[in-house]
Amino acid sequence: MTGEPISEAEALERLRQSDDPSMQYYGAWWLGRNRSQHPDAVPLLIEALRQRRPRDVGAGVEENAVARNAARALGKLAPAAHAAIPELLAALEDPDDGLREAAARALGELKAREAVAPICQRLAGGPAVAGVQQASNPRLVEPCEALLEALGEIGMADLAELAVIEPFLGHARPLIRSAAARALLQLSGERRWAEPLLELLRHEQLHVRRAALMDLGAAGWRPAADAISATLAENSLKLIALRGLVEHGRGEPGDEALLITMDALL
């Protein structure tokens, strides 16, 4: 994002106009980034989410970029954006996989129980169908990482849901394996699902270790504290992960030890 900072009023005005998609794009980003509580924010973002542009719209904004940013912003405005769930569910069926990804993450942040069935349907083919690489680019047929993470965030655990997620532990891409393990750990709390994440903390590639750190923090699995602090990654990311452990179990035994671990990284 470039240019001079804008105000909330200007962000709303940029989203209201329809002549310049790049201004709408920035307006949507601003409202989400700054967690706007303005009563017009959610309705305007829902309207922007409805925009589907079949071709390049110029002004440096790619196809469906405004809708994607609107979806991302709506997720950041949880729980106030509950009214957006029907439109986000519709976006989950859009041909644009980038928009499906943004919608899935937003539905996870909104903890939209209505999204569990359609997300599981998207993932039902497993790694050989939903998780296969597209013919034309490196992206997968479905945005599996976002879909898996959304199931974990929504938090509705049953055997059928776990059965949909578990095959992705064998996916060729480590970030997909990490997202699957995170979701299973969030939904079940069972130690066996933490083991793949602990293994990924020792992965040779830094971006994989970073992802595993974030996933353990998001899952709030406290026994990972020592492994997190010892991971070969930036202290700033380790602190974020450890903060996740604190926030998920605030007031439980072990808070003091976690805080001491965090202090040692500062």
End-to-end separation: 29 Å
CATH fold assignment of the largest domain: Leucine-rich Repeat Variant
Class of secondary structure makeup: mainly alpha
The biggest sheet, with number of strands, parallel, antiparallel or mixed sense and barrel status, is: none
What would you report as the Rg, rounded to the nearest angstrom? 19 Å
What is the CATH superfamily classification of the largest domain? Leucine-rich Repeat Variant
Number of strands: 0
Mean pLDDT: 92
Note poorly predicted spans.
55-60
The number of helical runs is 15
CATH architecture heading of the largest domain: Alpha Horseshoe
| Beta content | under 5%
Query: What portion of residues is helical?
Result: 55-70%
Main traits of this protein?
single chain, 266 residues, mainly alpha, Leucine-rich Repeat Variant, 2 domains, 15 helices
Please summarize what this structure is.
The protein is built from 15 helices and no strands.
